[in-house]
Amino acid sequence: MLDFSLTPEQESLQDLARKFARTEMAPRAAACDKEGRFPEEIYRKAWELGLMNLNVPSEYGGSGLSVLDQCLIVEELAYACGGMTTSIIANCLALEPILLGATPEQKRRWLAPFCAEYHLASFCLTEPGGGSDAAGLQTRATRDGDDYVLRGEKCFITNGPHASLFTVFATTDPSLRAKGIVAFVVPGDAPGIVRGKDEDKMGHRASSTGTIRFEDVRVPAAQRLGGEGEGFSIAMRTLDQTRTPIGALATGIAQAALDHAARYSLERKSFGKPISEHQAIQIKLANMAQMVSAARLLTWKAAWTIDRGERGTLDSSIAKCVASDSALRVADDAIQIFGGYGYMKEYPVEKLLRDAKLTQIYEGANEIQRIVTARELLRRYA
Ligand SMILES: Cc1cc2nc3c(=O)[nH]c(=O)nc-3n(C[C@H](O)[C@H](O)[C@H](O)COP(=O)(O)OP(=O)(O)OC[C@H]3O[C@@H](n4cnc5c(N)ncnc54)[C@H](O)[C@@H]3O)c2cc1C
Predict the structure, then answer these.
(1) Residues 6+ apart with CB under 8 A from 93
(2) What is the per-residue pLDDT across 292-326, written as a single tens digit (0 to 9) for each?
(3) Cβ(121) – ligand 1 distance below 6 Å
């Protein structure tokens, strides 16, 4: 029998995340958004409470949570602030290649420090020349004795301006495309790393996003994850794991938009009665509730699939795509229900729309998710 009830442990994780989100994140969300401020004190508190490094197994000092447990936490955090959540969960994205591709010795060396102390890591795949076509990346890894020399540029890197560790994807030969890609662990203070400015973004403004240039950065071969040519698979398997929590992040934004809109509709009057009594508004709220439920259920289904040991490419693509498209539509409907006030920064819903937009773009744009979905689907009919 399928059972949607949460265990007592899951309820307490959800409760922990909810309290943190409502007491620490929510009160600062509007100001950080307005100022584009990266609230590192909040990220440190999240680390202290065990709300970062969620995917790192307990043997390295991490929380070692299932993907479903991660999703429960991420939805609660995103309800308060999508941008802060992006920065809090970026370590999961950056450390996943190590979990998937490293030797036991490499795992001990690179994962344990993240659990012993607060540090940020960044996942460096996207380049100025293109993100969707990851196999076409151009950052070069040239073998030189026991080292590789990295040269190239990565862009839109979450937490890049603050990270003390990078997982980097480079190619030994661009003409080999996917077969030439290699993954590396690179400390943030390696000579030749040049950090660009913090980008000024539409949403997720409490998160930090930057360019990282590798100017002949020397990386010992011992910091390579897996073999030459295995980097592309590590990157894709990483995204298979981390896309589902992005579905949860989008669900949290959508739930917040629905809650704000429903409450407002009960207070705001037009034509002598609360707007909640107009059927047009009721239908909008019903559609929003449907989208939130569908987003959450698909996200949980994808998490359940991965937690059973399956790769979950199809389910996670569907979940991320539906949840992020839903978040944008629900946030848009929430603004409509707020009318003119919804367009004003004094009210919380316009931020939700700006934050929802990113969930359609990062960790694989939704066009790419649909390509992946179709490919996985058609395989079943071939
Ligand atoms: C705030 C933010 C944070 C990010 N954080 C990170 C990070 O930490 N690490 C990292 O590596 N990257 C990160 N990214 C990058 C993100 O993953 C990419 O932006 C995304 O993968 C899309 O790549 P692109 O921007 O180069 O768009 P492009 O690949 O240039 O695509 C442009 C448009 O064309 C569409 N398109 C492309 N190819 C096809 C196709 N074959 N068929 C149909 N449509 C297509 C895309 O879907 C998109 O709509 C972040 C991005 C942002 C905005």
Answers:
(1) 123, 158, 238, 242, 363
(2) 999 999 999 999 999 999 999 999 999 999 999 99
(3) no
